[in-house]
């Protein structure tokens, strides 16, 4: 269980997160939506330990996040950033292997190597292992990093729940890979993992999220199943855009038409 | 890169190092033939006696050999330092000369050159021989920390700020060193001037022992952090998520780096651009894995500086060209080329440092 207890975050006198509480469960793909500047990234960064809340506590399992060592957390919690800049030429294989760093000291084991191979295969990047990371397109680089974070939490560590945080993971991907990405995220959630993703595309949220949290101006205004939480009124409220929600016969999820 | 490729590169570089050491031992103001070198070694190890004059032997063992070996060790140290600093700043154009480590160490050492004689309390104590390297270490450390703190905001190093901070810190250190050479008595001043461009002419076994010890300790420690430094290539937040204590890593790396550069600079002076050229060549050969870069830097850095010193000794023989002129002559154009590349890729929006 991931629990947020009255989180607040201020920087330079501005309060960005104004008291957010909530719970995230394993087995569900949770998504955070909200307009620019609503505090989505800040909230996710607090959950992943990059930022420390000014007020409030985050609970991972039974222990407060700030009481847990980064070294131990790295074995069952992975974070994928919006964009990762890397100025040096490394092979794709070497980048993915970084995901296994928390699991070995000096040399990767045969298992680590096998996990990296499987992670690349899962992202349909089998032929990329020896390619220079710097020569890849933005979307390909993002898939390499997804393979890296998957390799990091590939299997459960000492019966701990696993946690995966994704900060706008699909912004640089094409249509096909966006869906592929979210399918994999959903698959991982089902393997007893807490998955929290920030997403902008409301239709993708409608189609893939099991649990939706809407943020506006640093406050949580709605949460729940997307089919119930995501209403025409919410879209107007969040983005100031009039939207129609339609229910086509051909698919089993509603479509948001702007 | 494949691990087997790395193994082959190490093997090739080790052979190359052996080769250039042999050539460098033989060439110079006094020429030794290879069979003569063989005889020296055999006699020294007590296997045979030979007929070479004692003066030749003296020159070889007391001047030539320690000098060549000193070049190898300092080359290794400066190149490894370049690798470490590039990983820390996440930028391939960083090297100890650029970010003030060398000039800070030079200022520390110069102050001992000039003022050391007045510090009578250390004379004859165990502190006397380590005073010079310790002062160089302190100066180098201070300069590195200033540049790193100024250029690193929120885990990102801004290239322009880093270069300007380096310019400023180098200028402060240079004016300090300049002032010291101004107030110094003539022989001290001359030695400071020489030593600002680096010189191996004073290399002896004691200095070699000191630099070798510092370099080996730093090498072993640095290898332990190679994996963490790789993770740091992804950025500080990503490294943190991979379980690395980034703050403590940064301090350890700065300390290890300054230990090597400080001690080396105290012994042979300021030699620029070695730490830039060597890791750059290695990256083109075998990628950016820091373990590979560290081992490769130790070998290729040694090769590069032994060669540079050989050139310094032979181009105007019997006079010597300061070695810093040669390393800068090769290194500065490489630096410019890399800087141009970096500015271009920044314009494309894909590259930051």
TrEMBL record, chain A:
Superkingdom assignment: Bacteria
Gene3D superfamilies xref list: P-loop containing nucleotide triphosphate hydrolases
GO molecular function: ATP binding; ATP hydrolysis activity
SMART domains the UniProt entry points to: AAA
This protein's UniProt keywords: ATP-binding, Nucleotide-binding, Translocase, Transport
N-terminal signal peptide: none
Pfam families linked: ABC_tran
Residue intervals of the ABC transporter domain: 2-242
UniProt-listed PANTHER family: HEMIN IMPORT ATP-BINDING PROTEIN HMUV
Entry function: Part of the ABC transporter complex HmuTUV involved in hemin import. Responsible for energy coupling to the transport system.
Protein name listed in UniProt: Heme ABC transporter ATP-binding protein
Phylogenetic classification of the source organism: Bacteria, Pseudomonadati, Bacteroidota, Sphingobacteriia, Sphingobacteriales
Automatic annotation (TrEMBL), chain B:
Membrane spanning stretches: 65-85, 97-115, 130-150, 157-183, 203-223, 254-280, 292-311, 323-343
Gene3D superfamilies linked to this entry: ABC transporter involved in vitamin B12 uptake, BtuC (1.10.3470.10)
Gene Ontology cellular component terms for the protein in this record: plasma membrane
Subcellular location: Cell membrane
Record keywords, A-Z: Cell membrane, Membrane, Transmembrane, Transmembrane helix, Transport
SUPFAM superfamilies, alphabetized: ABC transporter involved in vitamin B12 uptake, BtuC
Membrane topology: Multi-pass membrane protein
InterPro entries attached to this UniProt entry: ABC_BtuC-like, ABC_transptr_permease_BtuC
A single MF term (Gene Ontology): transmembrane transporter activity
One Pfam family, short name: FecCD
UniProt keyword Cell membrane, yes or no: yes
Gene Ontology BP annotations: siderophore-iron import into cell
Entry's family note: Belongs to the binding-protein-dependent transport system permease family. FecCD subfamily.
Name of the protein: Iron ABC transporter permease
């Amino acid at each position: 269980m991931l629990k947020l207890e009255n989180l607040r975050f201020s920087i330079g006198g501005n309060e960005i997160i104004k008291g957010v509480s909530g719970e995230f469960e394993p087995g569900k793909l949770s998504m955070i939506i909200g307009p620019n500047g609503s505090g989505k990234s800040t909230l996710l960064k607090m959950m992943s330990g990059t930022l420390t809340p000014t007020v409030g506590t985050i609970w991972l399992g039974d222990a407060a996040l700030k009481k847990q060592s980064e070294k131990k957390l790295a074995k069952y919690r992975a974070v994928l950033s919006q964009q990762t800049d890397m100025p040096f030429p490394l092979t794709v294989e070497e980048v993915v292997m970084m995901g296994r760093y928390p699991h070995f000291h000096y040399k990767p084991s045969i298992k680590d190597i096998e996990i990296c191979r499987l992670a690349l295969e899962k992202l349909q990047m089998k032929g990329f292992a020896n390619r220079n990371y710097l020569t890849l397109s933005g979307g390909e680089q993002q898939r390499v990093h997804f393979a890296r974070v998957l390799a990091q939490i590939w299997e459960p560590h000492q019966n701990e729940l696993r946690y995966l945080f994704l900060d706008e993971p699909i912004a640089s991907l094409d249509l096909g890979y966006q869906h592929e990405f979210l399918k994999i995220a959903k698959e991982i959630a089902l393997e007893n993992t807490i998955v929290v993703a920030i997403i902008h595309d409301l239709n993708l949220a409608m189609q893939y999220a099991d649990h939706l949290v809407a943020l506006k101006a640093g406050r949580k205004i709605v949460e729940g199943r997307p089919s119930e939480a995501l209403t025409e009124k919410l879209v107007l409220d969040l983005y100031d855009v009039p939207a129609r929600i339609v229910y086509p016969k051909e698919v089993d999820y509603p479509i948001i038409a702007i | 890169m494949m691990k087997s490729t790395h193994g082959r590169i190490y093997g090739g570089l080790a052979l190359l190092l052996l080769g250039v050491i042999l050539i460098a031992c033989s060439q110079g103001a006094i020429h030794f033939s290879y069979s003569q070198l063989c005889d020296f070694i055999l006699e020294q190890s007590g296997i045979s006696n030979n007929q070479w004059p004692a003066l030749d032997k003296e020159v070889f063992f007391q001047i030539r050999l320690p000098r060549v070996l000193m070049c190898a060790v300092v080359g290794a140290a400066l190149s490894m330092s370049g690798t470490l600093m590039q990983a820390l700043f996440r930028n391939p154009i960083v090297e100890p000369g650029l970010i003030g480590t060398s000039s800070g160490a030079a200022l520390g050492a110069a102050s001992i050159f000039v003022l050391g004689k007045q510090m009578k309390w250390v004379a004859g104590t165990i502190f006397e021989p380590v005073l010079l390297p310790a002062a160089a270490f302190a100066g180098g450390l201070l300069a590195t920390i200033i540049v790193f703190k100024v250029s690193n905001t929120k885990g990102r190093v801004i290239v322009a700020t880093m270069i300007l901070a380096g310019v400023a810190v180098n200028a402060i250190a240079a004016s300090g060193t300049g002032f010291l050479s101004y107030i110094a008595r003539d022989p001290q001043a001359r030695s400071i001037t020489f030593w600002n461009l680096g010189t191996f002419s004073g290399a002896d076994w004691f200095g070699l022992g000191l630099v070798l010890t510092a370099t080996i300790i730093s090498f072993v420690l640095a290898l332990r952090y190679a994996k963490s430094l790789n993770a740091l290539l992804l950025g500080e937040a990503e490294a943190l998520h991979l379980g690395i204590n980034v703050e403590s890593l940064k301090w350890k790396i700065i300390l290890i780096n300054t230990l090597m550069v400080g001690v080396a600079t105290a012994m042979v002076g300021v030699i620029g651009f070695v730490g830039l050229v060597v890791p750059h060549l290695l990256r083109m050969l075998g990628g950016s894995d820091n373990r590979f870069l560290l081992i490769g830097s130790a070998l290729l850095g040694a090769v590069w500086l032994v060669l540079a010193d050989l050139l310094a000794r032979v181009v105007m023989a019997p006079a010597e060209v300061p070695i810093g002129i040669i390393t800068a002559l090769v290194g500065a154009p490489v630096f410019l080329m890399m800087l141009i590349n970096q500015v271009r890729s920044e314009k494309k929006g894909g590259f930051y440092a």
